[in-house]
Amino acid sequence: MSEFIVHSIPGSPFGRAVMSTLEEKGARYRVAPVMPGTLKSPAHLALHPFGRIPVLEHDGFRLYESQAILRYLDRVVPEPPLTPAEPKRAARMDQVLNVCDWYLFQGCGSVIGFQRVVGPKLMGLTPDEAAIEAAMPRARAVFAELARLLDTQPFFAGDALSLADLHVMPQIDFFTLAPEWAELGAPHQNLVDWLKRMQTRPSFAATTWERVADMAKAA
Question: What is the spatial distance between Cα 108 and Cα 114, in angstroms, rounded to a whole number?
């Protein structure tokens, strides 16, 4: 099978979800680094007309939107399967994927993760404490709902790893870098235990910010 190319900013949780999925599949890929501040450049807009990341290229086929990429990878590299065969578990996976995009990231990770991690680390910005505080009620609700959906299962869609876990993991991992983790994530022991399970997987270690930055430099 031909190589996969992932266009992403090192450290992007959405890019990491794609790379983690490729790692779980044992598929060959390389990182085509996208530099912060270039998302609206003509070169990147030619890849993604809305100026976002990641973008996947494979065998002359180009695809954007993280969920579409994850589902494509699960179809084109079917082993091991990352979508449950049982309809209710597959529906739960789909639900968690959307919770991740529309609630965990939008208004939570996009604010708290940016203010605490991306802005200071990549751009030298001082966190906007008022923006963080305004995002906290939504974040509390999202983390409580994720904990409820996970319940006592080892993974979000049941006993086996799914695309939902690989999509949520990078977002949650971002929050562990912020002091707000003590209030948002740490009180939910099932989420803490789930994250520990994810951290033991080789796909987690292979897609850290530092590892992806090294891959980008070698590209």
Answer: 9
